[in-house]
Amino acid sequence: MLALRKVPATTSTFTAARRSMATAAGQYDLVVIGGGPGGYVAAIKAAQLGMKTACVEGRGSLGGTCLNVGCIPSKSLLHNSHLYHVAHEEFTKRGIEVTGLKVNLATMMKQKEKSVTGLTKGIEFLLKKNKADYIKGWGKIVNAGEVSVAGLDGTTSTLKTKNIIIATGSEPSPFPGVEIDEKVIVTSTGALSLEKIPESMIVIGGGVIGLELGSVWTRLGSKTTVVEYADAIGAGMDADMAKLFQKTLQKQHMNFKLGTKVISAKKNAAGKVDVVVEPSKGGPRETLTVDVVLLSIGRRPFTQNLGLDKAGVKVDNKGRVVTDHEFKTNVPGIRAIGDVIAGPMLAHKSEEEGIAAVEYIKSGHGHVNYNAIPSVIYTHPEVAWVGLNEAEAKAKGLQYNVGTFPFSANSRAKTMDDADGTIKIISDKKTDKILGAHIIGPGAGEMIAEAVLAIEYGASSEDIARTCHAHPTLSEAFKEACMATYDKAIHF
Ligand SMILES: Cc1cc2nc3c(=O)[nH]c(=O)nc-3n(C[C@H](O)[C@H](O)[C@H](O)COP(=O)(O)OP(=O)(O)OC[C@H]3O[C@@H](n4cnc5c(N)ncnc54)[C@H](O)[C@@H]3O)c2cc1C
User: Fold this and answer.
1) Residue 205 lies in a domain
2) Which pTM value belongs to this model?
3) Per-residue pLDDT reduced to its tens digit, 95-111
4) Which end of the chain is more exposed for a tag (fewer CB within 10 A), N or C?
5) With bands split at pLDDT 50, 70 and 90, how would you rate the model's confidence at 156?
């Protein structure tokens, strides 16, 4: 069992200093439990729509997993480790001479912390500016109209409310046989704060988080091996793109052991970690010894001590709160959004749901288009996709066209000498409507916005092919890929 967050077992620990926020603050229209991207966005939106709102957060700072131990710190380390990697591996061939280049990990970590603190404080300011109360403590649902809070200051309070939104997020999934100490056997949280660069590292799990953090430490000098149970990396990616992506990471010295099952990871007497693995389909075991193991096999919903049982809120077999399309749980007055419910665990998905849930409460109408939620892996090159991949289009029995365009034929990528990658567009054979877009290449995470907009507006590949793109830009490659797709759709 992971002890990732110190949630008090019961609020009664704090009865000595019991007081009632309901008396002080009156009845709320909405109490949001959890101050991550889903929760704080919902709270701000509700306050802007005139609802008396509180956001309860127990970790001591706002922004949730995303700002504190997720998207933001990882992107800071990805950015700076990329700069180092380019300086180390490419400056000379680019005509830039540097001597004495080295990593100062403590400074890199400080810079990461600065970006986190700046943003978390910014959210606190936004809540205040919009007149939403920020309640520092762990919330527990007493019933549909009441949330008790074990305050971080030792007090206990009760918030009376007309509506509750559960936005308590997720935590790393544990793995039997792998005991986390966040020093040498770490989750993503520990991997964001290692005190020294490990000489060797095993990443268990070839998903987005493992590949991003594996990239960080590989660039900084670790000999990294990704051990993945499946035969391909990047779960959810288009199969062609996954193969190409693996090749680009291999070029950057990341090693892969696919189709391999981890049996255990244990710290040995020398302070290193022995990782026992065997082929997923069975076969001889081997032991790999490394300095650090990163366990990143996915995340699970976080609902510890939230009082769901007592309140009668249903969860599914994966522990996710069950909701309908309006984010209503089975208990009237209680909704749930973000990582704690079904769907991709992404910050922007949580935000969209936060806004929609509040709009449903306020007006009965909301909108989230799950076909148009992009995914991005912030490695270099970046990988980004939205909509259907080819296997999904096939599984749905759709007739489709595929158009591709490589960055090696894009003038801007050539000038940057950064031309690894390609773009693949999938469009409906009859209507030419774009069904999916898959990009590996420099700036893919920004470029995918064009594809998201296209899907949201129901654009065809012809629409994009006929849209003027500035020259020389990377986005011309997107237009070219759409032209290649449209070429297959036209029947003169
Ligand atoms: C290393 C890493 C990198 C990532 N990178 C990206 C990325 O680049 N892009 C992306 O879109 N997503 C990324 N994610 C995923 C993203 O962080 C999550 O999808 C997102 O944070 C989910 O938002 P949320 O509001 O649903 O939950 P969370 O962000 O998990 O927030 C939930 C909050 O609720 C609080 N809470 C829980 N229970 C209680 C309670 N009872 N009372 C009070 N407070 C409570 C928690 O302390 C937490 O702060 C990354 C995740 C990790 C781990």
Assistant:
1) yes
2) 0.94
3) 999 999 999 999 999 99
4) C
5) very high
Q: Please name the residue whose Cα sits nearest to atom 19 of ligand 1.
A: 346
- Please indicate, yes or no, whether residues 204 and 284 belong to a single structural domain of this protein: yes
**Separation of alpha carbons 413 and 424, rounded Å:** 17
CATH number at residue 480: 3.30.390.30
How is residue 467 annotated by DSSP? S
Same domain for 221 and 246, yes or no, is yes
How many angstroms does the Cα of residue 449 sit away from the middle of ligand 1? 22
Pocket of ligand 1 (CB under 6 A): 5, 33-39, 56-59, 64-66, 70-71, 74, 138-139, 167-170, 188, 209, 302, 306, 338-339, 345-348, 350, 378
At which of 368, 397, 418 does a domain end?
368
Alpha helices in 329-460 (DSSP H): 347-363, 390-395, 411-415, 444-456
CB 25 within 8 Å of CB 19: no
Residue among 466, 422, 428, 430 at smallest CA distance from 447? 422
Q: Which residues contact 116 (CB under 8 A, 6 or more apart)?
A: 63, 67, 68, 72, 73, 76
The binding site for NAD(+) comprises: 205-212, 228, 298
Residues recorded for the chain = 492
Structural domain boundaries enclosing 430? 375-486
How does pLDDT run across 23-75, given as a tens digit for each residue?
Answer: 344 699 999 999 999 999 999 999 999 999 999 999 999 999 999 999 999 99
When divided into structural domains, the chain yields a total of 3
| Best residue for ligand 1 mutational test, from 10, 32, 71 (most atoms within 8 Å of Cβ) | 71
Q: What is the CATH number of the domain that holds 338?
A: 3.50.50.60
Closest CA to 81 of 295, 378, 483, 416: 378
pLDDT at 489: 86
CA dihedral sign of residues 226, 230, 235, 239: positive
For residue 315 the two structure tokens come to 């969860």
Q: Same structural domain for residues 443 and 311? A: no
- Structure letter (DSSP) for residue 346: -
Q: Tokens standing for 299?
A: 């995340």
Nearest CA to ligand 1 atom 12: 346
What's the token pair of residue 486? Answer: 């449209």
Distance 73 CA to ligand 1 centre (A): 12
Q: 134 and 55 in contact (C-beta within 8 Å)? A: yes
Q: Rounded to the nearest whole angstrom, what is the distance from the C-alpha of residue 185 to the centroid of ligand 1? A: 21
SS3 state of residue 385: strand
User: What's the gap in Å between 5 CA and the centre of ligand 1?
Assistant: 12
